[in-house]
UniProtKB/TrEMBL annotation:
<feature type="active site">
    <location>
        <position position="274"/>
    </location>
</feature>
<keyword id="KW-0963">Cytoplasm</keyword>
<feature type="binding site">
    <location>
        <position position="267"/>
    </location>
    <ligand>
        <name>Mn(2+) 1</name>
    </ligand>
</feature>
<feature type="binding site">
    <location>
        <position position="262"/>
    </location>
    <ligand>
        <name>Mn(2+) 2</name>
    </ligand>
</feature>
<comment type="function">
    <text>Presumably involved in the processing and regular turnover of intracellular proteins. Catalyzes the removal of unsubstituted N-terminal amino acids from various peptides.</text>
</comment>
<keyword id="KW-0378">Hydrolase</keyword>
<dbReference type="InterPro" id="IPR043472">
    <property type="entry name" value="Macro_dom-like"/>
</dbReference>
<feature type="binding site">
    <location>
        <position position="267"/>
    </location>
    <ligand>
        <name>Mn(2+) 2</name>
    </ligand>
</feature>
<keyword id="KW-0645">Protease</keyword>
<dbReference type="Pfam" id="PF02789">
    <property type="entry name" value="Peptidase_M17_N"/>
</dbReference>
<dbReference type="GO" id="GO:0070006">
    <property type="term" value="F:metalloaminopeptidase activity"/>
</dbReference>
<comment type="similarity">
    <text>Belongs to the peptidase M17 family.</text>
</comment>
<dbReference type="InterPro" id="IPR008283">
    <property type="entry name" value="Peptidase_M17_N"/>
</dbReference>
<dbReference type="InterPro" id="IPR023042">
    <property type="entry name" value="Peptidase_M17_leu_NH2_pept"/>
</dbReference>
<dbReference type="InterPro" id="IPR000819">
    <property type="entry name" value="Peptidase_M17_C"/>
</dbReference>
<keyword id="KW-0464">Manganese</keyword>
<feature type="binding site">
    <location>
        <position position="346"/>
    </location>
    <ligand>
        <name>Mn(2+) 2</name>
    </ligand>
</feature>
Amino acid sequence: MEFNINITLPENDAADSLVLPVAGKKLPGSLSKIDAATGGSLTALLASGELADKTGATLVSHVTVNGKLRRAILVQLGETTDIVALRTAAAAAARAAIAGKSATVGVHLLGALAKEFDLQLAAATVTHAFLFEGYRFDQFKSKADAPAALTTVNVAISKKDQSAAAETGVAYGLALGHGVNFTRDLGNTPPNICTPTYLAEQAIELGQTGKNLQVEVLDEPQIAALGMNSFLAVAKGSVEPPKLITMNYKGGKGKPVVLVGKGITFDTGGISLKPGEGMDEMKYDMLGAGAVLGVMKAVVELQLPINVVGVIATCENMPAGNALKPGDIVTSMSGQTIEVLNTDAEGRLILCDALTFAGKFEPETVIDLATLTGACVIALGHIASGLYANDEALAAELLRAADVTGDKTWRMPLWDDYQDLLKSNFADMANIGGRPGGSITAACFLARYTKEYSWAHFDIAGTAWKSGAAKGATGRPVSLLVEFLSQRAALSGNKPAVKAAAKPAVKAPAKPAAKAVAVAVAAAKPAKKK
């Protein structure tokens, strides 16, 4: 799918399909001329009552514009358009456009927005919506799904002086979409392919193709030399070797933000074996690591002026004769000892060592991402991710980024009162605190390893993937973290927060004697099969 900036009005747009906004029960003023060019067909369609008032509702119909047949996609923005409405409408419009037979679509959502609306944010939202909704994962099917007919998306603006903001927004949306879809690819890849070694290979490839990114992968002896005995205790039941992956992006000045990802590429529960039903979805237990990789991909593409380090601890959690057992006591990299009461609470056992390791980078802040607890799903369902933090300002920053991106996130308590539930008679702590407040006690466990720096923890067990007919990785919370890092980069003062290596072309209005030339920006390639 290719993206262009197109300086044109709806009535002059030559695209096969046109995305046209509706504000409540009426057409916005920006569509008055195209309505006239259709002989009032758009007004008649609205009068039919077929388009619901609900934001994101769509109505698809063919209309004749100045004697030429066009596919009109009317999408409801609502009477008061904010970023939530635009995000909803853009996603609905993208689905409708991709489902059709048109090769090109002109998206005219930006012209209907209020003057004070951030054009860059709007262009990024539209672009990301098309990349997200156009995602397919059919690499492992003997016969690939029929490709969508849509190949070109023209994001329309009405004035030349809007082109710089629109270009920057489209570039940002592309980078974000590439990062999110990279994460989805990694999560959806089957666990016999997506092993710890595979994740390491993906990181190395990213380092080879990305500017300002250095990647280092440590194997089992090197991990042991660091004293990561808690991490290795989880890994020892599997024939797949563990990996500790470090991705160091140097794009600015100052201390780095360190992102730590849980990378259990398959979780059987170990000796504390999970029920068989739904266990196939435990391939998604690496999506904290997948999200870190997706964020790093977007950061590299944008060349954000900020230093970011990605740390991924990755292994499998398998039952075996030498596997970790309930009752075992392990010594973490920090020197603290842990009594293992349940081997299915393994994520915290690898994260505690990764969080200790993160301290060596002298971080500005550390954020870990983990599909950590079923208890978080019970607390928040599949709607919101759980956020824990020992830094109020950091929590507020992350929640603001969540508001911008629509990645719903809820702040959870991290009170010391819960620490008593982790008491052990035989070690410094137990690895579980019982059923009450299970997500909270897991976060409290991690908090014991983050006292030396600013830290936040995302429990994404309920939001990293979907089950049922819509089964698949969601790519959350990549967009949230890219927004967070972009805002931090903007405050750095080094250079603009968003910089694209390649900008979409700006297409001028078509003239009889002139041809418009478009430079395509290709979508990211899916993660390679090994």
